[in-house]
Write a structure and sequence with these properties.
Chain B: Pfam families: VWA_CoxE. Chain B: This is VWA domain-containing protein. Chain B: InterPro entries: UCP010256, Uncharacterised_CoxE. Chain B: It comes from Mumia zhuanghuii. Chain A: It comes from Mumia zhuanghuii. The complex is a heterodimer of chains A (292) and B (476). Chain A is built from 15 helices and nine strands. With 292 residues, chain A is an alpha/beta fold. Chain A starts with 7 loop residues before the first helix and ends with a helix. Chain A has three domains: 146 residues, 3-Layer(aba) Sandwich (Rossmann fold); 35 residues, no CATH class; 93 residues. Helix content of chain A is 51%, strand content 14%. In chain A, a hairpin with a 3-residue loop joins strand 6 and strand 7. In chain A, strands 2-5-8-1-9 form a five-stranded parallel beta sheet, with helices on both faces. In chain A, strands 3-4 form a two-stranded antiparallel sheet. In chain B, helix 19 links the parallel strand 7 and strand 8. Chain B folds into four domains: 67 residues; 108 residues, no CATH class; 191 residues, von Willebrand factor, type A domain (Rossmann fold, 3-Layer(aba) Sandwich); 27 residues, no CATH class. The radius of gyration of chain B is 28 Å and the shape is globular. Chain B has a six-stranded mixed beta sheet, with helices on both faces. Chain B has a two-stranded antiparallel ribbon with strand order 1-2. Chain B is an alpha/beta fold. The chains are: A alpha/beta (292), B alpha/beta (476). Chains A and B meet through helix 2, helix 5, helix 9, strand 9 and helix 11 of A and helix 2, helix 3, helix 10 and helix 12 of B. Bound molecules: adenosine-5'-diphosphate (ADP) and magnesium ion (MG). The site of magnesium ion has 4 residues of chain A, from helix 3.
Chain lengths: 292, 476
């Protein structure tokens, strides 16, 4: 049982010190992942702070972040390790006149091994934080590999033997849920769904990320964003959009939000033109046009 | 003030016992909770102090929930097994005594008093205040006596009775007036928020009524009957009018998820095979050893989709939901056409596109405006399939996926298997989605087994099952 954090409150404080404002559910789950020694599977819409959470935990615990960014087609060679073929070829062709057996023994050593994130985290001398980001983007086959690694934090390289982690890393997997992860992988993890934050938390996040924004502006900004999240949009604005919007408003010198300001800057918040149209309708910005 | 977990009520059993019972209840609502999850949950209870109920809730959620979307059911069940207090709790916050023995409120309150409090809470806009009003409302208005009311088996607390008397929506106007919002933009936001809070309040009343009832009738019973199943678990064939409306609200979010899934699958498929020529060219830098394969990227036109739905009687809700879903997914296909039948097939693509998005209303619109039952009102699968082939057979080509929806209850008439064979023969893929439980296929007048010999038939009783077929199997 590891004890990176003393209590749930301690998690909240330490993450806050790194600029990450954790909701009670985030803080509780991080605390439990540490105590129960389980990887944390974080699911939720884009831009709610999943990746940032792993980064903040790494900083708070002083355990370097090792990140495996998943994408379609990511494979063992990119996730685990691969042999540096080019270098091996050079070594072979530069032949030193020794037997093939000797050469073979030589080219399958550490020197020719390219450690990818999973192996890096396992071999790390110091405690590390392992972030497996956007697992849902990888193909299903990679999950078998992840399960293997996450079950005992050991990796077998046939030519080198089994490498076991000195310190089991604090592991965070994130997913935007574009595909169902396997039941087995889910079962291995504690589950955390991060949703859009409660308004007062989001206000605090915005104010801490964009220091020039005052209380009133932050409050009304978050109110508008929440109103938009309640309507059917292709892409609801996330925390990252709230932050971008606050920056824009600050740059424009807007001190309060009225129809005209919202109308002009809606494009920062919404990415699709039909979303913008729908939002204008919902907030009745069209009527503002008529009045102006 | 943080709520503590109430551990003092009689007959509660030990905490581990309560956890096990809660796990049972979650399973009863379709959540897969294995031993490893239960063990994790027990560990969570060991690591967290029970003094903070909110943290315990989050901790147990982390151990027991495995996917997004299970949270509402989890919360409702948690509230039954780990209630915030015992008995009436209106006074709990007031006098600060939280020893679980709070007595019923001293002052009896009437509908108007409670509504005044609700107006106040809505005007202030805070969750705690709403919780308090919900507790007071159920206490004052929700009591039902044993044997009273139609079909009432025993005493308890009713959310419906509470809400019918209170009519929370009537508090909206007054709350807005009290907020004193400035006309225009601010007022619109206020209205939006107050409406959302009224929705929340209804849920809180439901929670409170379940909690109180659980004390009278026992937790297991309440967890089983009073917790609303997840919309994705509701059986199409058994859905109430209310549930159908709720299903409607899930169409857009579900369509969004499915669209992402379909395009991810499309991208993956397009990744294609190794491009030998480019791989060899790239390999020149490694002395001719092909180390880095280059993949071809294939671009293919999107598939076409034909939906053929039985819109008779009880299956109409299922058909309506699926039509709306497919409509919302239309970007994913190069063409979508929708057909409906009872005993004759007619095209309804236009009817699905226009008008209100309510599955039940859609079925009525089809019955009124399309020629689906020219001779009599009962189903005739054979004739319907045959008329589809005759009138619209040319619609199906080698890029078309066909989804046929229906319970395959042929009314003891000729099922016309050849008509179905004809459809399957023309299409790229054909799926039959049957809203009946697989164990009922073939019973009575169901010809499902005969059709299933010809076509890939899937049980589709719930939204979950439907989205599985659409998201995983439909060609992209
Ligand atoms: N709780 C939070 N505290 C501080 N910043 C946050 C929080 N949540 C989100 N953010 C900010 O929002 C942005 C998006 O976060 P990110 O981790 O990239 O989202 P995700 O990985 O979920 O898509 C980042 O700039 C991050 O700093
Ligand atoms: Mg991210």
């Amino acid at each position: 049982m590891s004890e990176r954090f003393a209590s749930v409150e301690d998690v909240t404080d330490q993450l806050a010190a790194q600029g990450y404002l954790a909701s009670p559910s985030v803080a509780t789950t991080v605390f439990l992942a540490d105590r129960l020694d389980k990887p944390l599977l974080v699911e939720g819409p884009a831009g709610v702070g999943k990746t940032e959470l792993a980064r903040a935990v790494a900083q708070a615990t002083g355990a370097g972040l090792v990140r495996l960014q998943c994408y379609e087609g990511v494979d063992e060679a990119r996730a685990l390790y691969e042999w540096n073929h080019a270098k091996q070829l050079l070594r072979i062709t530069s032949g030193r006149g020794e037997t093939w057996d000797a050469t073979r023994d030589d080219i399958f050593t550490d020197e020719f091994l390219l450690a990818r994130p999973l192996l890096q985290a396992i071999r790390s001398e110091d405690p590390s934080t392992l972030l497996i980001d956007e697992v849902d983007k990888a193909d299903l086959e990679i999950e078998g590999l992840l399960l293997e690694v996450l079950s005992d934090y050991a990796i077998t390289v046939p030519e080198l033997g089994t490498l076991t982690a000195r310190h089991a890393p604090f592991t965070v997997l994130t997913s935007n849920a574009t595909r169902e992860l396997s039941e087995a992988l889910r079962r291995r993890c504690l589950f955390l769904h991060i949703d859009f934050p409660e308004p007062d938390l989001e206000e605090r996040i915005v104010r801490s990320r964009v220091p020039g924004v005052d209380d009133t502006l932050a409050t009304s900004l978050v109110r508008v964003v929440n109103a938009l999240r309640r309507i059917d949009l292709r892409k609801a604005p996330s925390v990252s959009e709230s932050i971008d919007w606050a920056r824009t408003l600050l740059a424009l010198g807007a001190e309060s939000l009225d129809e005209a300001v919202v109308d002009e800057t809606l494009g920062v918040l919404l990415k699709h033109t039909d979303d913008v149209a729908r939002a204008r309708k919902h907030l009745q910005l069209d009527e503002a046009d008529v009045r102006r | 003030m943080t709520d503590r977990v109430s551990t003092s009520d009689s007959g509660a059993g030990s905490l581990p016992g309560r956890l096990v019972a809660m796990v049972e209840a979650l399973r009863g609502h379709g959540m897969v909770v294995g031993t490893s999850e239960t063990v994790d949950a027990a560990q969570v209870m060991g690591v967290l102090t029970l003094a903070d109920r909110d943290l315990l809730r989050e901790g147990l959620a982390a151990a027991l929930i495995r996917r997004t979307g299970q949270r509402r059911v989890f919360d409702a069940v948690f509230d039954v097994y780990f209630p915030a207090a015992v008995g009436a709790r209106t006074s709990v916050r007031e006098d600060g005594a939280d020893d679980g023995t709070a007595s019923p409120t001293a002052r009896p309150r009437g509908v108007d008093d409670v509504r005044d409090d609700l107006v106040e809470a809505l005007a202030q806009g805070g969750r705690e205040a709403l919780e308090d009003v919900a507790a007071a409302a159920v206490d004052a208005l929700g009591a039902i006596q044993a044997g009273s009311g139609p079909g009432a088996a025993g005493a308890g607390w009713s959310a419906r009775q509470t809400l019918e008397q209170l009519r929370p929506q009537t508090a909206i106007v007054r709350a807005l007036a009290q907020r004193g919002s400035t006309a225009g933009f601010g007022e619109r936001l206020d209205r939006d928020e107050v409406r959302r809070d009224v929705e929340r309040f209804r849920e809180l009343v439901q929670t409170e009524a379940s909690r109180r009832t659980a004390e009278v009738r026992g937790r297991d019973r309440v967890a089983k009957y009073a917790v609303r199943p997840d919309a994705s678990q509701v059986e199409f064939l058994a859905a109430s009018r209310e549930q159908v409306l709720e299903l409607r609200r899930t169409v857009q979010p579900l369509a969004r998820r499915l669209a992402t899934r379909l395009s991810a699958r499309r991208r993956r498929r397009n990744r294609g095979q190794v491009d030998i020529r480019r791989t060899l060219r790239r390999s020149m830098s490694y002395g001719g050893v092909p180390l880095n394969p280059v993949f071809e990227h294939r671009r293919k036109a999107r598939p076409e989709l034909v939906l053929l739905c039985d819109t008779s009687g009880s299956v109409a809700g299922f058909a309506g939901f699926t039509m709306l879903l497919v409509q919302a997914l239309r970007d994913q296909f190069s063409k979508v056409r929708v057909f409906a039948f009872v005993n004759h097939t007619d095209e309804v693509t236009e009817l699905v596109t226009g008008g209100e998005a309510d599955p039940a209303a859609l079925a009525e619109r089809i019955a009124a405006n399309a020629n689906v039952a020219p001779w009599h009102a009962s189903s005739d699968y054979g004739r319907a399939l045959r008329s589809f082939v005759t009138r619209y057979g040319a619609v199906i080509g080698p890029r078309t996926s066909v989804l046929i929806l229906g319970d395959a209850r042929a009314n003891h008439l000729d099922p016309d298997l050849d008509a179905l064979r004809d459809i399957v023969g023309r299409a790229r893929r054909t799926f039959w989605l049957n809203p009946e439980h697989e164990s009922r296929w073939g019973l009575g007048d169901s010809v499902a087994p005969a059709y299933a010999q010809i076509v890939d038939m899937h049980e589709c009783r719930t939204v979950d099952q439907l989205s599985g077929v659409v998201g995983r199997l439909l060609p992209v």
